[in-house]
Amino acid sequence: MMKTRKLAPRLTRWALCLQEFDFEVIYKSGRIHKDVDCLSRNPVGDPIEAKDVTERTLVVNVETLTSEEIRERQLRDPKISKIMRLLPKYEHLSCRDRKKLKKFHINEQGLLYRKVENHSADKLCIVIPRCLRKDLYSMHDDPLSGHLGQKKTFERINSRFYFPGMRKYINRYVKTCVECQTRKFPTVPPAGLLQPIIVGGVCEKFGLDILGPFPKSLRDNKYIIVGTEYLTRFAIVRALPDSTAALIASFVVENIICQFGSPREFLTDRGVQFRSAVMKETFNLLHTKH
Ligand SMILES: [Zn+2]
Q1: Which GO biological process annotations does it have (predicted)?
Q2: What is the pLDDT averaged over residues 69-77?
């Protein structure tokens, strides 16, 4: 695994993880591999009772509190209590305030709810005061919650609860979760190795790139095209009013071909202008590889 150049992404991640260790892989047949089996099958404590599971699962405090207790906590939260004070006067509020409070609703027990758009229909979610917010985070880091990512944790909490700025707080919480940082592997594949560009001689390979748009010059130019000879790093620069393929083709012919001859190869970042039909035709006529 450590010597193979092309590995499946999963194996590459393992190879990266293991490369800091000096180790030797020894094959052992299953018949004599009992020592490890013994460790992995070491008996652990009794499984958690179903009752404990439901109790421990999610958001213990919020779910066990009575409506009065939640209402009392909502009123103690300055932001939420302000909404609760303003809501009965909804008709007399300014348009701006009405827009802000449009989605809030107080039920008959005096609890503040907010309408949350769900896939199929709108749903009323209880507004959680600041002092109870940390209990919701167990929906991410409880052993049974599975340390889901930002999006899934948000969706899970958002399906039942609401508090102002919740996406930002949840994202920050998940991002800084110590367990996630220490145990999770990055999901993006590692970057490939850099490949050196081999050049045989002078004027064999030219690089082309466009810079801009810049503020217009006195002659109405907005772009700069740069052609670089790969061996000597000699750069040819010209200002252009636009970045069209026709202008680039004229630069290639007038400033490169007419002065240095036709190079064997052009290297570009494969921008749209370089892949256009005009450029393709120009490169074909010059027998140059792009
Ligand atoms: Zn986590």
Answers
A1: DNA integration
A2: 89
Residues 58 and 177 reside in one and the same domain: yes
Query: Ligand 1 center to residue 244 CA distance, Å?
Result: 49
Domain assignment present for residue 26? The answer is no
Higher per-residue pLDDT: 52 or 205: 205
Q: Which residues of 153-171 are buried (b: 16+ CB within 10 A; e: fewer)?
A: bbebbbebbbbeebeebbe
Provide the pLDDT for residue 47.
55
- Do 204 and 231 touch, CB atoms closer than 8 A? yes
pLDDT at 190 over 60: yes
Give the domain CATH number at 233. 3.30.420.10
Compute the average pLDDT of residues 44-56.
Answer: 49
Determine the distance separating the centroid of ligand 1 and the alpha carbon of 14, expressed in angstroms: 21
Q: Give the residue numbers spanning the domain of 249.
A: 205-285
Ligand 1 mean position to 175 CA, how many Å?
Answer: 8
